Amino acid sequence: MDSQVSQVSPDEAMRPVLEAQDIARVLTRIAHEIVERAKGADDVVLLGIPTRGVYLARRLAAKLEEITGTKIPVGSLDITMYRDDLRMKPARAIGRTEIPGDDIDGRLVVLVDDVLFSGRTIRAALDALGDLGRPRAVQLAVLVDRGHRELPIRADYVGKNLPTSLRETVKVQLLEEDGRDAVLLGQRTVQAAAQ
Amino acid sequence: MKRHLISAADLTRDDAVLILDTAEEMARVADRPIKKLPTLRGRTICNLFFEDSTRTRISFEAAEKRLSADVINFAAKGSSVSKGESLKDTAQTLEAMGVDAVVIRHHASGAPYRLANSGWIDAPVINAGDGTHQHPTQALLDAFTMRRRLVGRDAGLGKGLDGRRITIVGDVLHSRVARSNVDLLHTLGAEVTLVAPPTLVPVGVENWPCEVSYSLDEVLPKSDAVMMLRVQRERMNAAFFPTEREYSRRYGLDGARMARMPEHAIVMHPGPMVRGMEITAEVADSDRCTVVEQVANGVSIRMAVLYLLLGGSEPAVTTSTAARTEENK
């Protein structure tokens, strides 16, 4: 199933590397790591990067609440307007930015995304945060780190390190958006490469 | 979406809803400590104003600056235009200077269309009002204000104005606002009724996607929004109604008339208002009047239009929603 087979849908040609229970376990671990590093989670704000980062941030917030017994604010941070490749592609629809509470000044902001790749999305997210306020610190949690960084950025919490080749593609599916939880690895199709 | 924004009639329903949804996000920027986005950094936009309009110009300028674009303001008065330079020469000058977009306000209907389709200039053209023809960003900000008030700020996302009844009252003949609004509101699914003295109803109105009535009192009780138009005395070259008092009595909105409107209904006005003529001070200052909101919404709408036309290598495609590929994570 590793190679791209013709006559099958792209999803079928992809190999799952994380299943639903793996994703749940990984998120629980990240939640514990956040509590441990932040010594509690009193000033933590989780900001998910749309689309799937937001769902992951909500799930993490629920787990943090289970662990600490306190409600963790969770929001979303759309980075479309801060991208460095805006001029190379057709203008795209912008997503939702929602900052929970009054502001993020003095808080520990944990950015949450599904896949960490070139690092450019996170660079844009850091720029966007700078316009929104001044957090005490910013950390990054990702479900999958697939390597190939183009900027000096690394994640503080990684669900799974997944060394990939540039010819491969990583796809995260979440129940809320795709009807199932899975991380899939496959070969990049010509169509996807052209995007 | 097309490359230019010349007429509200050019917008498909998907385009219009995309602009309104984008504007909703842009409106949030106004609530932030830093009201600026880096999106159009390095782009130069020229506001080409052949006709005076402080309100529209500063609204566009605020939108452009919030998106970090470089802004050139060009007023025809005191420029080479008053020395006899043609639109073509002005356009070619701007093209040579490498302008990335042109916002044009012109007293002649069709000037923006000519600019966009003549090949004089390669940049996207945004119509900021041409003669008695169109004012698409005004229609968009009006629709945005209606959707926020009548459907709800978050509840309205992705939606049009289906089934809402909108009444536009006054000098329809000289009003580009009325024309643009009829086109856009129809696209968004609203039912529009024009109310005007017979002399101020344009020829061919029967081909417009709207109803026409001569009695304001009959239409008011079934309106969700009532938009009062300014009586454009500067465009009137003949006697269109006997006296101002007569006009006010039949087509002006006062407190008593406003009380006949449903409770949720709003009063709109594109500004500038002539108090005592088409609208009384009592109505203009009431909570139901959205004039100030419309001004604030104008900046958000213009940011959305500028972003969608200029933010990428080509204008936004309405078919794909936020399809984020993973290669740039």
Count all strands of chain B and give the number.
Answer: 9
The N- to C-terminal Cα distance of chain A equals: 23 Å
Largest interface: A-B, 40 and 33 residues
Report the uncertain regions of chain A. 1-6
User: What topology, given as strand order, has the largest sheet of chain B?
Assistant: 7-6-5-8-9
Helix content of chain B: 25-40%
- Over all CA atoms, what is the radius of gyration of chain B? 20 Å
Radius of gyration of chain A: 17 Å
Strand order of the largest sheet of chain A: 3-2-4-5-6
Q: What structural class do you assign from the helix and strand content of chain B? A: alpha/beta
Could you give the order of the helices and strands of chain B? HEHEHEHEHEHEEHEHHEHH
* Count of beta strands of chain A: 8
Strand content of chain B: 5-15%
Indicate the mean pLDDT of chain A: 90
The run of helices and strands of chain A is EHEHEEHEEEHEH
Give the CA-CA distance, first to last residue of chain B: 27 Å
Explained architecture:
The complex is a heterodimer of chains A (195) and B (329). Chain A has helices spanning 20-38, 52-68, 120-132, 175-178, 190-194; strands at 15-18, 44-48, 74-76, 108-116, 137-145, 157-161, 168-173, 182-187. In chain A, 42% of the residues are buried. In chain A, 30% of the residues lie in helices and 24% in strands. Chain A has a five-stranded parallel beta sheet with strand order 3-2-4-5-6, with helices on both faces. Chain A contains five helices and eight strands. Chain B is built from eleven helices and nine strands. In chain B, the strands form two sheets. Chain B has a five-stranded parallel beta sheet with strand order 7-6-5-8-9, with helices on one face. The model of chain B is unreliable at 319-327 (pLDDT under 50). Chain B has helices at 13-29, 54-66, 87-96, 111-117, 136-151, 176-187, 216-219, 244-251, 255-258, 281-284, 291-310; strands at 44-49, 70-75, 101-106, 125-130, 165-169, 191-195, 211-213, 225-228, 266-268. By secondary structure, chain B is an alpha/beta fold.
